[in-house]
């Protein structure tokens, strides 16, 4: 009883206390959860700044543009793949404005851009790094932002170019015209170019260096039709002693390839037997395939002695059915592969394309021949007409970069040849050069109207 | 299990300790007597000497014999009868007990912090007691409430035991969807709040089965409940302040009764099935659709993947997939053991129960199993100053199920899909062309939930009019769930191996809370005045830890449950939440001549869910009642036995917005890059949002007519919720889909509730009573400043319900093309979102129930009809284009467009017409997909036969048959009109056989 009485006394004490201190905030004060950190604290420590930066790269790895990590989305959209998915609206070119893949692509891209902008704002307010260290990191993230917008504008046309974290401003943001987006991308990339070193931060080339920035800049100049600059930056990369074309095609997609400009660090670096997501997406071992296979039109684009046909594709047949899959990745376990974002070959193609549009077709043919001969093909004659060469160039792009980074769609689009798809894709229409802006975005922000034409 | 019995043992030991108090004697006489009821002697009446532990029980003739001190009081207690006290002044005593007819004067209503007599109640409170709860063969107490209480609408999310429920008390108060927990009432078990925890998802891995919504009340055995009170209006809920906006559900567990030690054994077995299947197309109809599709497409050469057309499949097979996949009988078994007893000072009740609930799937785990223990101990000191109540409720529930509901495959599989098994008994993959739905069964979900609710209430009377009380409680709710995906779920032809393809996921979610509530009660009566006062404080702290891990690749599936042995281990989530809440509350009640009553309640709340400027909020209410049947003018109205007019007005609030939402932080990312973990911005933050407030107004009339044979209660209420706290939708270009903020919008829930209880027959052998309730709710958005320029302009309309869906206007099937037609409001020849202009309300017009209780001699029959008048999404909401091999459809799809049937209900069959495929979403989001979903359901029937065998010492043997969801009348287009997510297993039809033995 005494104990109870004591307990009760305490209770009354507590009651009195709570009555007296009822306005006291301490009773409802809580600690931060152990997985969260105040924003100013993040930017007052080098390690947490690094963690915030690391997040930007894992964002890009997990939802890489141009297709947000969606199994060969643009390859199914064009003529590279045959799809066996049910209701594959990309494959059948019947995407609607409420397509979840589109919303996901748009949403994750802008979410990642927010992370970049928040990083820029946080870092600029921070004083733990010296100006030079700051500049290097700022360079990298400006590069990432430029890269996102470089792809987004090719997919969606006019888009909002968000550079702050102010949601009140951003939720009303209108669209920036395509050409202006390209100029802003150029600006971001130039900022990056000034501060990023040519030496890689990591020997596995999992962070961009100067050459990577130059490559995206060259790609962007192609879009801006400033072909001399595109040529110049492509040449810089070709002259860069860090890189060399791999003579053995089996080595191009290995981790230690000399042709690699930038590759993505996998989810878990300790995995010794893991394959890339590409290998998991494209390879099948039984017939009929249940997901995706290389299309007939792609297979027919190869000449029989093309080494890429022999080494980068694999055909399965059971006498009745014959299907092929991309075999760039996943050929052998044991030797590690990372997913490659950019490789040296693209610089040759950019140079060839840039020369073509500067009416230097013969020079362009020579550049392309450097690739062709390494792929077991005979050289093209230098006397080709510009139109014919563009046709050859696009076929070469197709054979070199199939199932990589949405190349087919972007290459055809850049060279105004998307209408070529009409012969193999029955539902193809002119409007398909752009994806629709997610319907929900237009509903939530009038200023994003109008919807892309045709949707 | 082990734990449970340990707890039980400790409880019993404690009990014996308490019972061993001493008895002291004075002048003793021997008393003999008999106890009669209305129809003769009563057997088994407890006769207790007040103030002592000594007691006896009447025998088969109603007679008793006891030695008692002269002048002492004898207390006569019997279940269902009003207790009586008599002073010992002679050797012979004849006592007559009256049946407890639960007349208004007798019932006390628990309002949480205080109790009030039904008669003097100023607030709006609905109550259901054990008698009615026990009629339903159900797992979750919420199922037993369905249709029985006015103003309370409960929807069962799934027919699988162990799932969740949507509960709306007087409508939706918030724009936030029910999935966010915005409309969940406050659940309080014997004084301890238990949180549903939806904001952080209480289960981590049950997405496919339960949409991660698992009712916290699954941990409570319905048979342990004495009563459930639902507090609705401001007068009843304002004392709960910020947590009362959505109503309060008070659950009181069963307490012991003084007298003989009673043992109760409960046992029942029940059989449950899906009540009604949808009529799907048969093989002939399906094949006709396929042929037609290819003909319409002009396809004569079939690609290999059209398996039925190229001969890979036998196109003439027929399987009723609903019968095959969800047509089983779920068998449930329940057994319970209860012991209760005690004396005038100390009473105890212990209930132990074990229940198993199977599934209707063809092969699956054990389903839902719950072991529960309830211990209640009440003690009051001999000087009547101390009052101590201890309650412990502990349950371990496990759920062992396939990881996905088979209802959707059962509806979608083509009728000629291949057999599930090969001749050799192995799963049939039909040479890798058939995604066997049973493969999914190999991927399993299992969970284990441990729930402990512990409560102690200690009261001490300082003076006769003043008492202090401490209510302290602890709850623990931990869910551990696991999804196992062995590589064997894939066709063997894929040659997948366990070391790459076997996946094991595990999630844990531990929630702990404690609450302490010191209170001072004071009451005083002088002449015609009666005053009651209460002040108290609350301090509550909740913490919640989440952890989820995935293991990929096991050298053998034998190790799959041990993630430590996985080749790759990924930690998906580590998260901890903390919530603190402090409050001060008070009540002042004044009654004059017991007929004019005023009740004031108030609360000042502080919550950690708000930024520094907004941590505190004030809430309060005034309630009043006028018992006009006491007035002189009513005295002559012999038909009026009771009449009361009551009303209340006040505010309550809600802080159910999620923890930490006002903070500007970064969150640790478990995805690594280059071996480094990341940090990402947690949210768009807003430090300035504040309390959501709901103002409630109610007026009600309560009448007892013809000697309380007819009781009527008619209530009108109007709740207005303003300062809406919600995640305001933002375009994703801002980086986030939403930001938390207050919104100037006001939502009004207004309605009428009528309950009518009648005693139709009360005779010696015959008894018949009827309970009827109906609620007519109306939900309306009455103000929304700046709606036109906000991100909600396409979601809500002022003057309409907030259960609004913007749709395309469906015009019919174009007789010329076979495509659907929709209204092109902007005349641009494209049907896109700017044509989504028709707002359709998913409305609840009325809901209610009709219950009849009939007893004849030893038989009793009880049946309840539930009725709901509403509109909701119908099956067209998930219909795609007819013609594909992948999907079967309801037989309605046979009425589709062909050249000879141009005025059809559905579009032409096709496999490749992109125009048709482009219309799918538009069709699903058209006004055609919302229609009547009203139903009348024979919710519950219970037939019992009660026997007593006094010679064997058996006080009661009740044999019963009970049914749940026996019959449904509806013209709803879909599998069942009661659903929250289409494609979930509907509520099952259950028949239970059981017995209850008390000795």
From TrEMBL, chain A:
Pfam families (UniProt xref): SusD-like_3, SusD_RagB
Location in the cell: Cell outer membrane
Domain RagB/SusD: 325-455
Coiled coil (UniProt feature): none
Cellular component GO terms held in the UniProt record: cell outer membrane
Residue ranges occupied by any SusD-like N-terminal domain in the UniProt entry: 89-222
Entry superkingdom: Bacteria
Keywords from the named record: Cell outer membrane, Membrane, Signal
Similarity-based family: Belongs to the SusD family.
Protein name: RagB/SusD domain-containing protein
TrEMBL record, chain B:
Subcellular location: Cell outer membrane
Top-rank taxon, per record: Bacteria
One term under GO cellular component: cell outer membrane
PROSITE patterns the record matches: TONB_DEPENDENT_REC_3
Cell division among keywords: no
Topology in the lipid bilayer: Multi-pass membrane protein
Keywords of the record: Cell outer membrane, Membrane, Signal, TonB box, Transmembrane, Transmembrane beta strand, Transport
Domain TonB-dependent receptor-like beta-barrel span(s) in chain numbering: 410-966
Signal peptide start-end: 1-25
Transmembrane keyword on record: yes
Cited Gene3D superfamilies: Carboxypeptidase-like, regulatory domain, TonB-dependent receptor, beta-barrel domain, TonB-dependent receptor, plug domain
Boundaries of every TonB-dependent receptor plug domain copy: 118-248
Protein family per UniProt: Belongs to the TonB-dependent receptor family.
The protein's name in its UniProt record: TonB-linked outer membrane protein, SusC/RagA family
Organism annotation: Myroides guanonis
């Amino acid at each position: 009883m005494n104990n109870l009485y004591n307990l009760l006394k305490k209770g009354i004490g507590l009651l009195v206390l709570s009555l007296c201190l009822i306005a006291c905030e301490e009773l409802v004060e809580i600690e931060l959860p152990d997985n969260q950190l105040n924003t100013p604290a993040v930017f007052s420590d080098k390690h947490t700044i690094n963690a915030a930066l690391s997040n930007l790269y894992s964002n890009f790895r997990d939802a890489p543009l141009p297709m947000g990590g969606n199994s060969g989305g643009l390859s199914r959209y064009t003529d590279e793949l045959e799809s066996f998915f049910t209701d594959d609206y990309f494959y059948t070119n019947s995407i609607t404005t409420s397509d979840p893949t589109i919303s996901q692509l748009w949403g994750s891209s802008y979410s990642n851009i927010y992370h970049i902008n928040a990083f820029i704002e946080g870092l600029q307010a921070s004083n733990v790094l010296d100006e030079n260290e700051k500049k290097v990191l700022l360079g990298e993230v400006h590069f990432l932002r430029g890269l996102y917008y470089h792809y987004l504008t090719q997919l969606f046309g006019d888009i909002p170019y968000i550079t702050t974290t102010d949601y009140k401003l951003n939720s009303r943001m209108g669209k920036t015209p395509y050409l202006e987006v390209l100029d802003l991308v150029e600006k971001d990339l130039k900022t990056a170019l000034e501060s990023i070193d040519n030496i890689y931060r990591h020997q596995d080339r999992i962070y961009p260096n100067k050459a990577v920035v130059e490559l995206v800049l060259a790609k962007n100049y192609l879009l801006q039709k400033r072909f001399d600059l595109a040529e110049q930056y492509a040449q810089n990369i070709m002259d860069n002693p860090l890189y060399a074309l791999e003579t053995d095609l089996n080595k191009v997609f290995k981790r230690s390839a000399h042709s690699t400009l930038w590759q993505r660090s996998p989810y878990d670096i300790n995995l010794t037997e893991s394959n890339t997501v590409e290998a998991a997406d494209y390879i099948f071992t039984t017939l009929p395939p249940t997901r995706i296979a290389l299309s007939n039109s792609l297979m027919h684009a190869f000449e029989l002695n093309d080494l890429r046909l022999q080494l980068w594709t694999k055909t399965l047949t059971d006498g009745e059915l014959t299907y092929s899959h991309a075999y760039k990745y996943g050929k052998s376990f044991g030797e590690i592969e990372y997913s490659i974002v950019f490789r040296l070959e693209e610089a040759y193609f950019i140079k060839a394309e840039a020369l073509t549009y500067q009416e230097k077709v013969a020079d362009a043919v020579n550049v392309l021949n450097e690739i062709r001969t390494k792929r077991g093909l005979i050289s093209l004659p230098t006397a080709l007409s510009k139109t014919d060469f563009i046709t050859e160039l696009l076929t070469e792009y197709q054979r070199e970069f199939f199932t990589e980074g949405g190349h087919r769609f972007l290459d055809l689009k850049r060279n105004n040849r998307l209408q070529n798809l009409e012969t193999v894709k029955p539902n193809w229409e002119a409007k398909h050069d752009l994806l629709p802006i997610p319907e929900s975005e237009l509903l939530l922000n009038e200023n994003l109207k109008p919807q892309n034409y045709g949707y | 299990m082990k734990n449970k019995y340990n707890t039980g043992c400790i409880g019993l030991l404690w009990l014996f300790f308490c019972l061993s108090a001493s008895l002291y004697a004075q002048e003793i006489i021997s008393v003999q007597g008999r106890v009669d009821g209305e129809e003769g002697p009563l057997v088994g009446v407890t006769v207790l000497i007040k103030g002592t532990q000594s007691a006896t029980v009447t025998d088969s003739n109603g007679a008793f014999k006891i030695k008692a001190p002269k002048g002492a009081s004898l207390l006569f207690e019997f279940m269902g009868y009003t207790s009586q006290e008599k002073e010992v002044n002679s050797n012979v005593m004849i006592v007559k007990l009256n049946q407890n007819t639960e007349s208004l004067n007798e019932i006390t209503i628990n309002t949480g912090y205080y109790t009030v007599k039904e008669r003097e109640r100023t607030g709006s409170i609905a109550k259901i007691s054990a008698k009615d709860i026990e009629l339903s063969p159900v797992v979750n107490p919420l199922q037993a409430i369905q249709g029985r209480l006015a103003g309370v609408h409960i929807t069962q999310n799934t027919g699988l035991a162990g799932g969740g429920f949507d509960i709306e008390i007087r409508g939706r108060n918030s724009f936030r969807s029910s999935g966010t927990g915005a409309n969940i009432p406050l659940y309080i078990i014997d004084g301890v709040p238990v949180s549903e925890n939806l904001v952080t998802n209480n289960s981590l891995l049950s997405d496919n089965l339960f949409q991660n919504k698992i009712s916290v009340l699954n941990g409570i055995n319905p048979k342990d409940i004495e009563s459930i009170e639902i507090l609705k209006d401001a007068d009843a809920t304002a004392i709960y302040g910020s947590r009362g906006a959505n109503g309060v559900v008070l659950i009181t567990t069963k307490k012991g009764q003084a007298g003989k030690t009673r043992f109760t054994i409960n046992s029942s077995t029940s059989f449950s099935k899906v009540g009604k299947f949808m009529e799907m197309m048969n093989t002939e109809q399906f094949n006709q659709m396929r042929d037609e599709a290819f003909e319409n497409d002009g396809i004569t050469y079939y690609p290999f993947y059209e398996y039925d057309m190229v001969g890979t499949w036998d196109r003439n097979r027929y399987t009723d997939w609903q019968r095959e996949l969800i047509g089983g009988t779920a068998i449930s078994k329940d057994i319970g053991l209860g012991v209760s007893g005690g004396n005038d000072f100390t009473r105890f009740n212990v209930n132990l129960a074990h229940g198993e609930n199977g599934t209707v799937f063809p092969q699956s785990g054990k389903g839902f199993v719950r072991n529960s223990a309830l211990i209640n101990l009440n003690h009051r000191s001999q000087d009547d100053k101390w009052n101590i109540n201890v309650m412990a409720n502990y349950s371990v529930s496990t759920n062992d199920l396939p990881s996905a509901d088979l209802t959707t495959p059962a509806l979608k599989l083509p009728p000629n899909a291949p057999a599930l098994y090969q001749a050799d008994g192995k799963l049939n993959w039909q040479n890798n062309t058939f995604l066997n739905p049973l493969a999914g069964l190999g991927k399993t979900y299992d969970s284990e939930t441990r729930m402990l609710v512990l409560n102690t209430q200690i009261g001490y009377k300082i003076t006769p009019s003043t008492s202090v009380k401490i209510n302290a409680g602890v709850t623990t709710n931990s869910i551990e769930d696991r999804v196992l995906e062995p590589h064997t779920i894939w066709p063997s032809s894929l040659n997948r191996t366990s070391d790459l393809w076997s996946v094991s996921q595990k999630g844990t979610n531990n929630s702990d809370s404690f609450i302490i509530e010191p209170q001072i009660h004071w009451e005083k009566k002088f002449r015609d005045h009666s005053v009651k006062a209460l002040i108290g404080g609350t301090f509550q702290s909740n913490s919640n830890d989440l952890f989820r891990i995935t293991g990929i690749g096991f050298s053998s599936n034998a190790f799959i449950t041990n993630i430590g042995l996985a080749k790759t281990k990924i930690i998906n989530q580590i998260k901890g939440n903390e919530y603190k809440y402090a409050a001060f509350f008070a009540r002042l009640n004044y009654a004059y001549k017991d007929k004019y009553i005023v009740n004031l309640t108030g609360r000042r709340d502080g919550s950690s869910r708000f930024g520094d400027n907004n941590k505190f909020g004030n809430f309060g209410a005034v309630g009043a009642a006028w018992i006009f049947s006491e007035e002189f003018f009513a005295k002559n109205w012999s038909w009026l036995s009771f009449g009361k007019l009551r009303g209340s007005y006040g505010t309550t609030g809600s802080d159910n917005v999620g923890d930490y939402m006002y903070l500007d932080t970064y969150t640790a990312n478990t995805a690594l890059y280059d071996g480094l973990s990341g940090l990402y911005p947690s949210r768009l933050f807003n430090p300035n949002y504040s309390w959501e407030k709901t103002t409630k107004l109610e007026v009600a009339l309560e009448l007892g007519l013809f000697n309380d044979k007819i009781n009527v209660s008619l209530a009108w209420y109007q709740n207005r919720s303003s300062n809406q706290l919600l995640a305001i939708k933002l375009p994703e270009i801002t980086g986030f889909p939403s930001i938390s903020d207050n919104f100037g919008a006001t939502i009004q829930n207004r309605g009428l509730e009528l309950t009518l209880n009648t005693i139709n027959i009360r005779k010696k052998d015959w008894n018949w009573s009827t309970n009827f309730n109906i609620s007519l709710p109306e939900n309306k958005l009455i103000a929304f400043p700046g709606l036109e320029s906000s991100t909600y302009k396409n979601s809500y309309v002022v003057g309409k319900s907030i259960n609004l869906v913007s749709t395309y206007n469906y015009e019919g099937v174009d007789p010329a093309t076979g495509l659907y037609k929709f209204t092109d409001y902007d005349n641009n020849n494209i049907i896109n979102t700017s044509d989504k202009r028709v707002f359709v309300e998913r409305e609840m017009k009325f809901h209610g129930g009709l219950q009849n209780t009939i007893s004849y001699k030893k038989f009793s029959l009880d049946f309840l009809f539930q009725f709901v008048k509403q509109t909701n999404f119908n099956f067209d909401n998930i219909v795609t284009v007819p013609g594909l091999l992948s999907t079967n459809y309801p037989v309605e799809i046979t009425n589709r467009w062909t050249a000879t049937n141009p005025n059809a209900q559905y579009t032409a069959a096709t496999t490749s017409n992109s125009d048709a495929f482009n219309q799918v979403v538009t069709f699903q989001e058209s006004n055609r997909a919302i229609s009547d979903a009203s139903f009348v359901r024979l919710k519950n029937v219970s037939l019992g036969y009660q026997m007593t065998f006094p010679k064997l010492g058996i006080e009661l043997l009740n044999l019963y048959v009970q049914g749940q969801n026996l019959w449904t009348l509806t013209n709803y287009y879909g599998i069942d009109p009661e659903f929250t997510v289409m494609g979930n297993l509907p509520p099952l039809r259950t028949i239970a056989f059981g017995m209850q033995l008390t000795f």
